[in-house]
Amino acid sequence: MRQTKQPLWNNKLTHASIFALSIPVALFIGKLIASGRLLILAIIIFLALISYTLMCLRSKYWLAVVFALTVNLPVLPLGDRALYLAEVLIPIAFVVHILNALIRKTAIFNKNGIFIWAYFFIVVAAFLSNPVGFAAIGSESFGARFYYKVLLGLCSYLIIFNQKVTHNDCKIVIRFLIFGSFVTFFNMVLPYLTNRVIVTPFDYYTWHQAMSVPTSMLIMWLVSRFKIETVLSPIRKQAWLYLTCMFFILISGKRAAFATAALAPVIMAAVSRKYVYVVSIMLLGVLALSVLIAGQGRLYELPKQAQRTLIFLPGDWDRHVIGYRNTSFRTEMRKIAWSHVLRNPLQGRWGFHMTEYDFYRIKLLPEAQNMTVAQLSAGIAWHSTWLGMMADLGIPAAVMWAGFLIQALLLARYGFKIVLRDTHSYTLLGMFFLSLIFHIITSYTSGDSSGPPYQFWWFYGLIVALANSSKQNEEQTIDTNE
User: What b/e sequence results for 363-383 when a residue is b if at least 16 CB atoms lie within 10 Å of its CB, and e otherwise?
Assistant: First the structure.
């Protein structure tokens, strides 16, 4: 009988190595305690706990990577900033993955990652050419963290794409995604609850925007998990959950989130080829918006956050809200981005940095009167994925990202054909597909050159693994029947 190769942590040599290292480690920890360097000790203990957790998870260690990416929590202090859980856990998991790959002789490269590698090599070339960082005031402000995010995105893809993914794994990942969205919500609201952010009586677009995070995730899960006729049926709880989520997104003030959440059932109805529902949902949406707009200022007064969500539609809006139609900040950012593209189409700025001229040019804008906003603006906040990639890395980077999106959409389309409808795998596939569509829709008005790889490459790797696992299960079923 053929023996299967055991994971790295089942290897006797590994156990012996750990035992041999435990003695000097114990002596080192004792020295830290004696010298009072408790912060370093806490960091070492935390890293040890992460390593132990990965070992306990055995072949499912990749789920820890997914958890770290979905639950974005700061865990270790780094000067006046903090390292997030994913930034600490992924390098450790990647070392484990490489050692496992060497023992099992599994593939590291495959055709599904061709555009990922191409984009990554462009980033590496830019870093080697200009490793300063993404700020006019030098790496002390932003450093190489944005390069690091792209590297983490690649590592997470390499860890996940070769795994055996089951329906139960997909169920766990879905729970991570939903739980992580609520954690993000509380992280965004906490500064306002603890009075770390000063809010004046005229500020109405503050913590409210956080409400769009968990509700958008719930809508993606809802329309992917249940059939569209169930979501639209007024006698089903799913329909009321969808309307509740839409209400909270409306009063969050997030325009892009409201538009994409409204399109979610339309997209999934089209995927299911239920075109009658596509037309019906669009007509109901137009009717609902017409009622909201027609009554505003005449029959009732919508909350200012809700008015901000609908501000680009014709209506009798509050004079304090109309100012949000002004997009001079985004326009200025795009002008700067285009200037870099036109100056050097193939390389852009060739790295993550901005000139002092650009820095102070943005700082003088009416919407960027404080240093914090200016620093964020001078960083990666191009407010456009495509212009950001072209400005930072050149047109080839944007082409590689477009190739990745096309490949990801084709993979999702293939997945819909081979994955059973009423399964957690199908639900996760639907959520991935919707996140891609939403990214494409909002990519001109939001995004940058390092965030999307960090956000999507791990998810893409999971769908690659899911498609491969489903195909293998299908082939095994055929062999059994024969």
Answer: bebeebeeeebbbebbbbbbb
Residue among 156, 150, 266 at smallest CA distance from 219? 266
Q: How far apart are CA 381 and CA 388, in angstroms?
A: 8
Residue-wise DSSP of 320-340: TTGGGG--HHHHHHHHHHHHH
- Alpha helices of 141-254 — where are they, by DSSP H? 145-160, 167-193, 212-225, 228-232, 237-250
Query: If you ran DSSP here, which 8-state letter would residue 255 be given?
Result: H
Q: Is a pLDDT exceeding 90 seen at residue 135?
A: no
- Quick one: residue 109, left, alpha or beta (phi over 0 = left, psi -120 to 50 = alpha)? beta
Structural domain boundaries in the chain: 1-106, 111-163+327-422+439-482
Asked if 217 contacts 181 with a C-beta cutoff of 8 angstroms, the reply is yes
What does the pLDDT read at residue 109? 78
The pTM (predicted TM-score) of the whole model is 0.86
Chain centroid to CA 320: 32
User: What gap in Å lies between CA 314 and CA 320, rounded to an integer?
Assistant: 16
Angle (CA) 459 191 46, round 5°: 55
Q: Around Cβ 283, how many Cβ atoms within 10 Å?
A: 10
Q: How far is CA 254 from the centre of its chain?
A: 17
Answer yes or no: are the C-beta atoms of 161 and 465 closer than 8 Å.
yes
- For residue 25, the SS3 value is helix
| Residue type (1 letter), 181 | S
- What DSSP line would sit under 428-459, residue for residue? HHHHHHHHHHHHHHHTTTS--SSHHHHHHHHH
CA-based angle 213:215:216, to the nearest 5?
Answer: 70
Q: What is the dihedral of CA 307, 312, 315, 318, to 10 degrees?
A: 40
pLDDT of residue 277: 94
Residue pair 373/432 in contact (Cβ under 8 Å)? The answer is: no
Measured in whole angstroms, how far is the alpha carbon of residue 145 from the centre of its chain?
16
Spell out a b/e string for 53-75, using b for 16 or more CB atoms within 10 Å of the CB, else e. ebbebeeebbbbbbbbbbbeeeb
CB 142 within 8 A of CB 149: no
**Of 175-189, 338-352, 359-373, where does the model show the most confidence?**
175-189
Q: Exposure pattern of 404-443 as b/e (b: 16+ CB <10 Å)? A: bbebbeebbeebeeebeeeebbbbbbbbbbbbbbbbeebb
Per-residue pLDDT band at 51 (split at 50, 70, 90): confident
